[in-house]
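Hi L., both proteins are below.
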Amino acid sequence: MNQDYIKPDNWSIIEEGFDAERVKSSESLFSIGNGAMGQRANFEETYSGETFQGSYIAGIYYPDKTKVGWWKNGYPKYFAKVLNAPNWIGIDVEINEENLDLNTCTEIKNFRRELNMKEGWYNRSFEATLKNGTEIAVNVRRFLSLDLDETGIIKYEITPLNKDAKIVYKPYIDAGVTNEDANWEEKFWEPLEVKKGTNEAFVTAQTFKTHFKVTTFMHNTIFANGENVNISPSTIDSTTDRVQFTYGTIIAKGQTSAIQKIGGYTVSLNHENTLAAAEKTIKTAVSLGYDALLQNQIDAWSKIWEMSDITIDGDVKAQQGIRFNIFQLNQTYLGKDSRLNIGPKGFTGEKYGGSTYWDTEAYCIPFYMATKDQQVARNLLTYRFNQLDKAIENAKDNLGFKDGAALYPMVTMNGEECHNEWEITHEEIHRNGAIAFAIYNYHRFTGDYSYIPEKGLEVLIGIARFWHQRASFSKDKNQYVILGVTGPNEYENNINNNFYTNYIAKWCIDYAEEQIKKVAAEYPADHKRILEKVNLSATEIQAWKKVANDMYFPFSKELDIYLQQDGFLDKDLVPVKDLDKSQRPINQKWSWDRVLRSPYIKQADVLQCFYFFEDHFSKEELKRNFEFYESFTVHESSLSPCVHSIQAAALDKMDMAYTFYLRTSRLDLDDYNKEVEEGCHITSMAGTWMSIVEGFGGMRVKNDQLHFSPKIPKEWKGYSFKINFRNQILKVSVNHDKTTFTVDGDQDLTIVVNGNPVIASKFVQIN
């Protein structure tokens, strides 16, 4: 744990006291979003201290030219940047002719931030003394509307405490922004048009290269003691990419002045005329008014929490952690648009680029399937189907594959590979397996098979073709091997026969063949259409099966465990417990050469296979492999603690499971990896949800039924969660004495609890 300043609270993230060293971390932690856009918790007023300014729009990106490696054939030509969008939150403030800047105030008292997760708003308040001696109290509330998802609202209130004050508000919108992360220091936005009205303004700009057009807008209203003073700006300053209004007010000591600012974006992804759409959006928001917009926000979040909330009784930090994770997931993606996906930083930062990693299929889909309508998860699968042609192009043009073999990108915005590390881009090919597994997992959980004949089978065929061509036959082993890969453990590059990669390759081929047979039997028209489209023959399928049936898996007879890859036991096997703590995290302290030669594992690798394919292995096999590999795992990936928590719970290692749960749930809140100022780890947050539901709750889907083996950490009095299983809502409540299963509605649901069939109805209690 690196920091411990967030106050424990069941429903809010709270910071008390101003500390300039924490500003960038808090900008990440207090970020807000609504699925369509989001922003870091930057101050609205000027701040001359260290800050990471960031606002982001879903689906808007820039192809930043790759800085290294372009001499290698097949190397991605660009790294897709999550774009820092035009700034609409800015409000410069002058008080008695001095600029308000917390970095220069002589005193700051009662500084407090709150991110209210229950109601979906962010609040900041403080008292400050300026250099001119004026003392003020400030309260700022901001939220991004879930209902009007192109709209955000700021209410900025100032109360002079020791004298009357002339307060000047200077709200602005600015498209002249740059990215914190840019390869060539290029500008990404080209200004097109500025339009100014009485109290509203618009800046339309488009991205270079990708030509996304965005209209950034604002509408301002000035209040005194809660009453609209109906004033217009005294001056309007504008350039080709910026508009700033000036409003001068006089307010008496103890009275409250306020500016209410409505702002946001309309984008060409959704509108042919973004300016007209922005004008309409302002009109709608103004007609509703602040109070109605806030109440609608509260109501919208109430509906989300009704289904997705997890309650924990007796452990406030654990409760705060899971709600923070669920809140950020819902801020990032709500499933409304199949063109969008879940970026690893969401709307909280720019690191990693791209909007889609294998994290979506491996970690996020289970959360969205169980807490929302199944259409949301289906949209995520459709996203990949829509990019199948690009995956085939990627395999063909960059790697020389043929005949429709598909390699999905490690990182993408539009289906093209846009990651710029060779050992990840072209070696971490296991992501293909996660995409196929997600199709299987969707059918297993929802019971909806229709996706496979309609779309999924084509994806499975492309992936099977890739694995068939990627494997090579070893005469020495008399088996098929897969060489030159990076497994989930990115602290090993260019290794041979990563167990997880080989295993999921075999599974993908077997699963694709099974689905071809099933579609042929049950959907003959789709079968005929697909096989003709992809030109698939029985002979080719037989060739696939030969690879799958004769796949090599590295194994140690002495230790009776699967080996992470060939040669793993040749390393200096010093367990993590014997590693000097001053050397952690090793990715920040060691050279990359030293990391690669070490036995240390970034995240679940062999154990990722045991997580996906738990039923393929015995509990004894899991125990042996878990105890061996966990001892070398440094958990320097956000995706690591959740898998280990789930498996520790399955092995009745409850203290370990609880420790891993706290680490995954509070990874960002407590900044375990010392990097939260760069943004939060959004996709791994779904793993936190899995740690409770699949770990402590023991939920599995087997033979079309929900199975549970509930357990509870000794630190908790009880916990509860809901599952939307095939359009039936099941609530599970666990304490140390009993587990209660409650089904919404009158239809019973047959479940299996600790191996015993149970008919769950409106109330079923298992002692």
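That was the first. Here is the second:
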Amino acid sequence: MHKLQRTVCGLCERPTVTELTSSTETPRRIVVAGGGPAAHRFADAMHARGLEGWHVTVLTEETHLPYDRVALSKALTDMDYDLTLGEANMWDHEALTLKTGERVVKINAEAKTVETAAGSIFEYDHLVVATGSNAARLPIPGAEHTHVYRTLEDVWAINKAIAELTEKLGRRVNAVTIGGGLLGLESAAGTEQLGANPIVIDGSQWLMATQLDEGAGQAMGRLIKAKGFEVHGGVFPSEVLSDDDGQVTGVLMADGRVIDADIVIVAIGVRPRDELFRAAEGEEQIFSLGQRGGVVINEYCATEVDGIWAIGEVANFGGMCLGLVAPANTMAEIVADRLHGGEATFPGFDTATKLKLSGVDVASFGDAFAKTEHALEIVYADPARGVYQKIVTTDDAKTLLGGIFVGDAAPYTSLRPLLGRELSAEPGAYLTAAGGGDAPDTDLPDDATLCSCNNVTAGTIRDTINGCGACDGNAPVRELGELKGCTRAGTSCGSCVPMLKKLLEGELTKSGIEVSKALCEHIELSRQELFDAIRVLELTSFEEIMAKYGTGAGCDICKPTIASILASQHNAYVLDAGRGALQDTNDRALANMQKDGTYSVVPRIAGGEITPKKLGVIAAVAEKYNLYTKITGGQRIDMFGARLEQLPEIWKELVDAGFESGQAYGKSLRTVKSCVGSTWCRFGVQDSVAMAIQLELRYRGLRSPHKLKMGVSGCARECAEARGKDVGVIATADGWNLYVGGNGGATPAHAQLLAKDLDDETLLKYIDRYFMYYIRTADRLQRTARWQEELDGGIKHVEDVVVHDTLGIAEELEAAMAKHVDTYVDEWADTLKDPERLRRFRSFVNAPDQKDDSITFVPDERGQFRPATPEEKGKVLIGASIPVRRSAPDQLDENEV
């Protein structure tokens, strides 16, 4: 009898049905040697296909959960950045075991066991080796004083060394990276973000010689140099110089030059970690190894020894080992498929590469060097702009063979899936930098690979849109996020996301489903269109707007959206002229409602700086009204437990003491977090507190599509966590670096560098433009990170608009911000002046003096009060309402029990 089990699809988490093996069977044992991305992908692939009848043990020598080695540059500049792959709870599955700190040192193929350095023995039925590669070392004198760029420990050591050298030397560190390939430039870009002088040494005549031809490499070099990088090409280093204490002082070149250096990082490539497959002295060599290393595998990733597989960088296929994520993922999926009875085969290496290095777009794919016989190269080069675009086709100019893009990689997204296929237009039409507009629209065939990282075809995407292919007949997918989660497309490097979104919208349109950008059922315009219409026509009321662009009475989507648009354009009191009815609960009360119906009080503490006197006021108010107090993550003090009718009393005391609303309730600027900066800190290079206060006072009250957070760090140590904010400012010795589009929350994102070494005036000007452009064009409740992702061109487009003013609206955006700054009025100060406004703050409209006695509190374990639980409300309570202290300190309100 077949046993069926209702389970959940590992790809999209929808219910499905799988057939199980007998529960009495002994699970087949899979041991995975290695814990990098390839090993994680294999474990994930096994998990997705079902682990009934299997047990997978992953042995990794590192102490971390498997992490994204491709994104090491993020950990280089932010040691707290979490690179963990997938969901950590995957390892809680009873058939999955992850053992960290266990390095496999020996395979006993005959006994089917592996031995670890700790002496542990693990038996297996199948062994999957995913040991990856080691960083190549320099065979020159002084190499022992260099760093490599391969693991988390490597990049953390670099980060620490640069910080310590900066402190010790009292100047910018000269950080030399040897190697001008992908890893080398990534490393150099990271050192630059850490405040060092980035210097690149490369033996090749041009950068990224493995991926780029000479024209592209030269363009890349020009762009990198223009961003402050020092590049020495065409000469190899011969020695790393150091003093008697081992401190690096320079790099001696083969031509006799000495390049000053304080730290040297070697990123010249990787070597397969194939030592497990090499026979010890006196033993028979049973595995075939490639000429340049790596164990030879066949088309389904098996070695010559039965039951032993190899995936990732250690696997040699067709004479090649390749350190890219796409083929490693494909190999992992193939082995998992084979173990489940499938017949998948490895199609060969996909060498496509797309990345952004220090703000420079670079992409290369297919036969980029036109090695195919009679291949044609269609090239557009603009040395002055640092732009190079090349398409390689067959001699009839019809079939796409490859391409290279530097400086403007926009065509890559639509061209990459067409590799090996006929183009729908003349090749020159795809060279967008030549001024021909956007690349032609392309209708991808079903078997075209849309996401090369995860080997997802356009057909799979279409099937999933019309009914989840992974779950066989489930409901269709309508949202981009759901589509990414279900197919994995766009979840690795992200370069295919624009095409993925385009395909989704196209399929929905074909199905007769209108891809609506309407704000809601009452307003057909998108938020951006509505914002522009209100601005151009100078509309000032909800009634005017609905009469012209809406139907019905509105809803909880369009009402607060219109209120926000009116507030951001006119800066008027948010509750006047009928706008109070448009707001949500928090905005109507000018406070955040808590779970028990009370409200929190959050006065503004700009930049986290506060005088002892003002601290005393907060303490007195909190004690008088018996409020729970907490310092927030944004460097403010939050007071919880205030009843609605108490808010005006509390705020009067705060306003009289010089406080104003911190607008913790609004879709507006929340906080500007700062470190102490150069005023006190020995590492600070700029006055971050002063800048944070200036920013907070400038942008306070700015209503926007979503909340806004900012951070200012006084040096590259980044204590204010500025890159986790919508706008982050990090001090350099030459000014300020401006980062945009970061956020925490459920889907955290690191902010991206927009401009560097800015003076105060330019910094404010760019932030003015950025905020106003976001406010005008973002969707409802869209954070800056998601807004940037969905902009055509992403951060490059933002840079074009904000820095280079390509749309010609910079002056207009600055004027809009100036109007906001000039007309700002504190909402609580305004409220307290008007008795009619104060009428809103009553618990009972028909009994203004009656308090809400359903609000109850109990003492917590730390000497404060908290809301009572439902169970506690049935018992004798400490307080039936919030005790209010009167003139005598020991005289309690009559409602206190």
